[in-house]
Amino acid sequence: MPEEQDVELEARLADQERFVPSESFVSQANVSDDSVYETFEEEWPECWEQAADLLDWNEEYDTVLDDSNPPFYEWFTGGELNASANCLDRHLDERGDEAAIEWVGEPTDEENRTYTYEELHREVNEFAAALKEMGVGEDDVVTMYMPMIPELPIAMLACARIGAPHSVVFAGFSADALATRMNSADSEYLVTCDGYYRRGDALEHKAKADEGLGGVEHEVSDVVVVDRLGDDYDHPMGENHRDYDDLVADHAGAEVEPVSRDAEDMLFLMYTSGTTGQPKGVKHTTGGYLAWTAWTSQAVLDIKPEDTYFCSADIGWITGHSYIVYGPLSLGTTTMMYEGTPDHPEQDRLWEIIEEYEADQLYTAPTAIRAFMKWGSEYPDKHDLSSLRLLGTVGEPINPRAWKWYYKHIGGEDCPIIDTWWQTETGGMMVTTLPGVKDMKPGSAGPPLPGVDVQVVDTDGEQVEPGRAGHLTVQKPWPGMLRTLYQNDERYVEEYWAEYSDTDSDDPDDWVYFPEDGAKIDEDGYITVLGRVDDVLNVSGHRLGTMEIESAIVGVEGVAEAAVVGGNHDVKGEAVYAYVITEDGYEEGDEMRDRIVEGVEDAIGPIARPEAVVFTPELPKTRSGKIMRRLLEDVANGEELGNTSTLRNPEIVSEIASKVGDD
Ligand code: ATP
Ligand code: MG
């Protein structure tokens, strides 16, 4: 495209505030009728039978929602089903020879692996038989400490088949994190691997697993080890350690009858990362969770069985559980898994994979999109991405500039973008546009899904005026919700309900779920998530969302990413500190600093004017890619640095601190 025309296009996109899904998308969308919002409201909670109907039940449920003991809600009670049978067995007749998982390893000279539904079913059965032989029984928690290799979803589904809840610990977490989680769940079984490939290196994972096992306070019965690295790493095996391939070979051809689980039986535990305190064991159940992930995968991700669907998250996070494994497989589609990072061997790896597999959807995170943007559009431009039909984002608010970049350079201005707000605790998506129904507004996640009652309230629990910041709340239960924190009902009530509920009441109307996020709502009901409530600054008595200011800064030409925190200020209470990464090809310095200050003043007002702008090559991030603002706050206040052990890049904090000291 001639340069002049490109500039024009950028200007047009920069001004555009609403985007209409294309006619070609709408005409084929799974959900394209606006009336779904009204019907679901009128028919709530029975509307969720639609979600349950996407599943095969061994025993029909009697009650959609049992709300007799809030906030301990139960869904589809009396019903029985098995998650592995729903993800595998029922697809065999029609889709047995179709790919269930397309796995791409990081090394480009390695052969990728395809598992058809038939093959996946076989291996899940074999591993389920092995687990049973090891003595794993119904309701025994099996921990998995594994990277993005096919044996991870296989182990998860094998557990689901025999009714043993899994607890997946992200492979990037420390040995300590593994021990804490195994102790908390009383888990006597571990499935792990020798190592994996990361940016060209063979990482030795087994040593870390062994160190973690050393911290487990009870006896560990069995440790299964997948040999991922082969000759690249001769890993040590302990006495109760068993080789995965041997186990599966020993049970070749075995068939394990899927156990019939009560809808409310636990499917898995997932410990949230604990960026805000001790890890919480979020409990998800078989019926409600699976119904929720299946329904949202169909309605929001627009998944059809013949699609090749690519979510670039890690299965170690809830996004991978819900939208790589359970949602897509329950619908019988092809789900992709990629082992490595998007910048290895080159910064076009994802685009290469999408082109090769002709992926229909891409679901990723703002942190990745900002990185793609920083690397430049020449990388996606080298590839044919026309197979893509829908784009998604999750994990943090996405600023309009990154949204538009994604829309233009990845989606070719033809794919709707779903900006999905949800969390580990919600099990699946809660706030997002239905892509075949609603217009998109960059920066705003959209209206709550049909049947989901989200309100933005002030500290008294009253709805705030459109445009004003408040707290996001969910006023009614939903099938995918967590049921409790593992063996800690009290903390469950305390963490999520106490703030806005009358905790003495047994009337469900008196119970309100509080996800601890701030948000604002527009006249048209669209919700803009501002970030965690602890990410709100108080500058001279004005409450400002860090996200709002960050969004203004990232809107400035040449800025790739920004993080804003409050530093103590004698007069204002708090002052705005901005940490900024520039795009490649732009210079850090006074000129850029002035433009940033101006950008914030224009977008929000002089009240939000940054006291300091600190340029940095990186921001401190957790392994899930979230900015650790707490540490940046310590830096701004010249305080001793807090715990950096859950950071992906701990070294950057002292580097930033030295820059602030120089100022
Ligand atoms: P922890 O709860 O352990 O501190 P976490 O909250 O980062 O960790 P997740 O459950 O993975 O763990 O993340 C959910 C949070 O991510 C939400 O509460 C919200 O703050 C943020 N989030 C997710 N999706 C979006 C989105 N589309 N827009 C804005 N924020 C989002
Ligand atoms: Mg959280």
UniProtKB/TrEMBL annotation:
AMP-dependent synthetase/ligase domain segment(s): 89-478
EC number: 6.2.1.1
Listed Gene3D superfamilies: 3.30.300.30, N-terminal domain of ligase-like
Domain AMP-binding enzyme C-terminal: 548-626
Gene Ontology molecular-function annotations: 3-hydroxypropionyl-CoA synthetase activity; acetate-CoA ligase activity; ATP binding
Keywords from the UniProt entry: ATP-binding, Ligase, Nucleotide-binding
Segments forming domain Acetyl-coenzyme A synthetase N-terminal: 35-87
One Pfam family, short name: AMP-binding
InterPro entries referenced in this protein's UniProt entry, alphabetically: Ac_CoA_lig (IPR011904), ACAS_N (IPR032387), AMP-bd_C (IPR025110), AMP-bd_C_sf (IPR045851), AMP-binding_CS (IPR020845), AMP-dep_synth/lig_dom (IPR000873), ANL_N_sf (IPR042099)
Entry superkingdom: Archaea
One GO term of the biological process aspect: acetyl-CoA biosynthetic process from acetate
Membership in a protein family: Belongs to the ATP-dependent AMP-binding enzyme family.
PANTHER family for this protein: ACETYL-COENZYME A SYNTHETASE (PTHR24095), ACETYL-COENZYME A SYNTHETASE 1 (PTHR24095:SF14)
Protein name: Acetate--CoA ligase
Organism: Halorussus aquaticus
The gene coding this protein: acs
